Automatic annotation (TrEMBL):
Residues 108-156 form the RNA polymerase sigma factor 70 region 4 type domain. Belongs to the sigma-70 factor family. ECF subfamily. Residues 11-78 form the RNA polymerase sigma-70 region domain. This is RNA polymerase sigma-70 factor, ECF subfamily.
Length: 179
C-alpha cells in the first residue's frame, strides 16, 4: 500500500464520522448525506497532498464539505426540492413553557439571518470550532472569521430582540426596536 493510500485511509477513519454529522445536520435525506460525504472524500483523495496535517485536516474537510453542500443545494434548487434548514423545523415539545418559547424565539430569529450568518453560527455552535478553524472552513484569515462570528452573534441577538413573544405559543417577527 502506498503512502498516499495509507494517509487517505487514516484520514477517512479519523474524520468520516465528524464529516458525516456535519453534512447530516444540513441535509434532510440520508441518501443525500451519503452522496455528499462520498463526494467530500473523493475530493480529499484527488487533493490528498493539499490536506493539512492534524489538527487542521478536519476544518479543511469541513471547508470541502461546505463547498460540496453548496453545489448540492444548487442542484436541489434546480429540482425545486430545496431543504430549508430541516434541523430548525423540528417540533419542540417540553413541559417548560418558557424554555420552549425561548427556543421558538431563537429559531425564528435564526431563520431571519442571512445564509452566511447562519453557517458561521452553526460552525461555532454545532461543530464547536474555534475562530482559527472557522477561518480554515471559510478560507479566510482568523481575524476575519472572528469578526464574522462576532457580527453574526450580534445580528442574532438583535433579531431575537424584535421577535414577538405571543401568549399563544406562535412566533412572528415584530417591529420592536431597530436593527
Amino acid at each position: 500500500m502506498t503512502e498516499r493510500q495509507e494517509r487517505f485511509r487514516w484520514l477517512y477513519r479519523e474524520h468520516h464520522g465528524e464529516v458525516h454529522r456535519y453534512v447530516a445536520r444540513r441535509l434532510a435525506r440520508a441518501a443525500d448525506v451519503d452522496d455528499v460525504v462520498a463526494e467530500v472524500f473523493t475530493v480529499m483523495w484527488r487533493r490528498i497532498n493539499d490536506v493539512p496535517v492534524a489538527p487542521e485536516a478536519l476544518p479543511w474537510l469541513y471547508g470541502v464539505a461546505r463547498r460540496v453542500l453548496a453545489n448540492e443545494f444548487r442542484r436541489l434548487e434546480r429540482r425545486a426540492t430545496v431543504v430549508d434548514d430541516a434541523a430548525l423545523d423540528e417540533a419542540v415539545e417540553s413541559d417548560h413553557a418558557d424554555d420552549v418559547l425561548d427556543r421558538l424565539v431563537a429559531i425564528a430569529a435564526f431563520a431571519t439571518l442571512g445564509a452566511d450568518d447562519r453557517e458561521v453560527l452553526r460552525l461555532v455552535a454545532w461543530e464547536n470550532l474555534s475562530s482559527t478553524q472557522v477561518a480554515v472552513v471559510l478560507g479566510c484569515l482568523r481575524t476575519t472569521a472572528a469578526m464574522r462570528v462576532r457580527r453574526a452573534r450580534r445580528r442574532l441577538l438583535a433579531a431575537m430582540a424584535v421577535v414577538d413573544r405571543p401568549h399563544d405559543g406562535s412566533q412572528r417577527v415584530g417591529t420592536k426596536g431597530a436593527r
